[in-house]
Design a protein that fits this description.
The chain is mainly alpha-helical. 68% of the residues lie in helices and 4% in strands. It has 13 helices and three strands; from the N terminus they run ααααβββααααααααα. The protein has helices spanning 10-39, 44-65, 68-73, 75-88, 114-133, 140-159, 164-181, 185-205, 207-217, 228-240, 265-298, 302-326, 344-361, and strands at residues 96-98, 101-107, 110-112. The chain has a three-stranded antiparallel beta sheet with strand order 1-2-3. Strand 2 (101-107) and strand 3 (110-112) form a beta hairpin. The radius of gyration is 20 Å and the shape is globular.
Length: 368
């Protein structure tokens, strides 16, 4: 067992807490109008987000206090439990449908999204197994392919919901971990060609995905339909200018931008806090990604290094995709912005995974 060298990374902890506080404030600001209209309570979404933030903070404390080796020891069980929930969510009458996707299980207003937990399940499993499989990774049939199946089968179940955004994050994170662990480039080249065909097939199989692509290329072709969200998002970002309209002063949250507290919350941030506020947010994201990479490079245990890298990769992919969607660089995918967007499962699992990263930071040989 490796010994810890110091306390948790203070830069990382500062960025996490800062984004969490900003996220709670912006969820309230972005959701207050819609919340009052729908529930006669402007703080409805804030209170729910605060509850999940509290649970997530408890999760961070638990993750910091528990040696990371314990989670790696039970990686197979955790992965298996997440896999079972992915199957359960697809059972009619059990899985809950929201926004056209059957992605939740739960009772009443309280529910969880199993695909969010599966992302961490894959990271844990790969971190535990990849060091033992390094000598086989260069072999496609005996090393790369079996691990690929452990990644692609959950991806297939997620696509049945369907939830392309979460699936992309899952596959992207797993592939990066395989690459870092030493898988051959030729395997990825062959897989990329096959994946391109599969991706085209996925888009062609669902008309709404084709509509999202065309709306991305020219949102003004259907400004009241598939292009509506991105147009309203850009309308929010534009007037923000350098300093923004001021906290709580967004105009787009008045039923122009649909449910602005979720995937498009960064548009409201840009509108109310301006370029400076948006830059501060991106700077805090950069600190988390930077410290995650530093931790991964400076911890002795290869499993811990892969675990830190996997968490950082998952976080980075989500941030890049979400902000790219909001500013119109990529088609709408339905990915939340970590620590900021409203969503219980997303917030809780993000805090828990970052708590695990804080845990590993105690074992890294770096100055904090």
């Amino acid at each position: 067992m490796f010994k810890s060298h110091h306390s948790v990374d203070r830069f990382l902890l500062f960025a996490i807490i800062s984004l969490l506080v900003i996220g709670l404030l912006m969820v309230y600001s972005a959701s207050s109008v819609w919340s009052e209209y729908k529930f006669d309570d402007p703080t409805f979404y804030l209170k729910r987000q605060a509850l999940f933030a509290f649970l997530g903070l408890l999760g961070i404390i638990f993750m910091i206090k528990t040696p990371y080796e314990q989670f790696l020891k039970f990686a197979v069980i955790i992965y298996g439990a997440c896999f079972i929930f992915l199957i359960i969510v697809l059972i009619p009458g059990i899985g809950m449908v929201r926004g056209g996707a059957q992605s939740w299980v739960g009772v009443g207003a309280f529910s969880i999204q199993p695909s969010e937990f599966m992302k961490v399940g894959v990271i844990l499993l790969f971190a535990a197994w990849l060091p033992k499989w390094q000598d086989r990774l260069h072999q496609f049939k005996k090393g790369f392919f079996p691990l690929l199946l452990l990644l692609m089968i959950p991806f297939g179940l997620i696509m049945l919901q369907p939830d392309l955004g979460t699936g992309v994050v899952l596959v992207g994170t797993g592939m990066l971990m395989l690459y870092i662990a030493g898988a051959k480039i030729s395997h990825f080249v062959s897989l990329a060609m096959l994946g391109l065909v599969g991706f085209v097939a996925l888009i062609a199989s669902a008309p709404y995905r084709i509509n999202r692509i065309t709306a991305f290329l020219n949102p003004w072709e259907d400004p009241l339909g598939d292009g509506f969200q991105i147009i309203q998002s850009l309308y929010a970002i534009g007037p923000g200018g350098l300093l923004g309209l001021g906290f709580g002063e967004s105009m787009q949250k008045y039923f122009y931008l649909p449910e602005p507290q979720t995937d498009f919350i960064f548009a409201i941030i840009a509108e109310e806090l301006g370029l400076i506020g948006g830059s501060v947010i991106i700077g805090l994201f950069f600190i988390i990604i930077w410290r995650g990479i530093i931790i991964a490079l400076n911890v002795e245990d290869l499993s811990a290094s892969l675990l830190a890298f996997g968490i950082t990769a998952m976080f980075s992919i989500q941030v890049m995709i979400n902000i790219s969607v909001v500013i119109g660089l990529t088609p709408v995918t339905g990915i939340t912005l970590p620590l900021l967007s409203y969503g219980g499962s997303s917030l809780t699992i993000t805090l828990i995974s970052l708590g695990l990263l804080l845990n590993i930071s105690q074992y890294a040989k770096i100055k904090t």
